[in-house]
Amino acid sequence: MVSARTRNWILALLFLGWALGNLDRYVMNYAILSITQDLQLSASSTGLLLSSFFAGYALMQMPGGWLADRFGARKVLIASVVMWSIFTGLTGAAWSMASMILIRFLFGIGEGGFQPASSKIIATIFPVKERSRAMSVMLSSSAIVGLFSPILSVWMIQTMGWRTMFVVIGAVGAVIAFLYWRHIKLPQDESATNTLNGSEQRKSSVSLLLKTPLLWSLLIAYFSIYAVNWGLATWMPTYLSKVRGLDMVSLGWLQTIPGFATLVGIYVSGYVLDKLPKGREKLIGSFSCVVVAVLLYFMFTASSVTMFITYQAIVSLFLAFVIILLPSVVLKNLPAAVAGTGMGIVNTGGQLAGFITPIAIGFIVEAFNGSFDAAFWMLIGFAIICIGALLSLNYEKGELLKQNADSASA
Question: Cα 171 vs. chain centroid, distance in angstroms?
Fold first, then answer.
């Protein structure tokens, strides 16, 4: 059993890596204002560019999880950070829309293995009763980056330009990859190929995963809630700038408010989820989606920027609970031997949403002559779909999978 000190050290490194990965995604949402001008992009082209990362990221989720289960999470983790750092740096060298889309797609491929591999590490070294909190700590890096990235992004873009900014972020990634190679040692993980006896048994476990209704409900829930999350994250700077008339500095400061709400929501959610009786969390998650749907309507109909930001902050708080709930269900209901593959399967839904939603919003905005109202209605629809997916979660099927996988590894 890994000591508490070692677990916390590894978790801190996972937090650091996930923070950098999220920083690149968040700064792109602000850099896109300058990139759109430099490359002369339309709204639909902007949406395609914002989505190109998620196309590669979604494509790599299941292979990344399988590779982590098959060859060891540490190897996949290091390879992921190295590859995404290279293509983050190359983002600053893009000379056309086509080159930018290709680079961002390959960046997504590189980062795609990180979350399945890191989730497998958490499932391997943390006891079940601590996994929600461990996951919330790692994912809280996204909220912390979201809190500071508006101000940081504006400052970096204005002082060094968007091209140099991406080169600097890529260099930081190389440092983190070295830290992973030097300090993350997982003897259990390196023998991951022996967890299930032979390739046929491993294929059997993957087949069981794909036949488990729990996984499909989670995949739909991931898709729908991340459609809301990434729809807001990718287009919010553009919306507030073009529709609400905010300048870059005001935009940066105001977006720290929902960022702080997300951070609070993530930490509280991790603690609450580890305390809730099994089955109760999906009811609270469904209620959270109801709140999100209602407040999304209040957001785009708000009469002032103050009320808009207030509603956005509350939406961020409830979104955080659902975003922590979904991986917690995976880590607590699947055997550690297939946690990477399981996380890769369900997270594919979330990243497909990240690919589809920005493109869809771009086309919708263009079709409605710059109006975002129809886009908000689409996000409301996704929140409603998530309610149904959460209520359909069947934990008994997950227990059956765990028993079958355990018997396969015996």
Answer: 22
